[in-house]
Predict the 3D structure of the following.
Amino acid sequence: MIEPHTGGCRCGAVRFEATSDPTHISYCHCSDCRRATGAPVSAFVGFDVDAVLVTGSTLKSYENGPVSRRFCSVCGSPVSYFDRRIGERIYFMLGAMDAPSHYKPALHAYVREQLPFVHMPDNLPRHLKSSVERPETD
């Protein structure tokens, strides 16, 4: 049996649980993720949507084209990312996971937008753009 993967926002008003193993774990260096999180680089853990349960009435969304980012309206914590161009997957912020050290990123995405002072000498694959194929890539 697969143990559930759990997490939530800073104040605990939003919780989530995934009952399948992650489909994707990665870093993202794009400017959109930087603005959404306030961090120089983001890390995500992706799951199939049908294996995820999200609870909490304080969850709010910000829509930007095909991308929906969800956050807690109480504490402001970024919680998840969904891109309708790439199917039925939801990506949770690695820092929102209850056990973030269990999720080691396997690659870097959008390294063409990586800040020049961010150095991550981990030898992981690096993608100039997205690591997940999108029909409308920029």
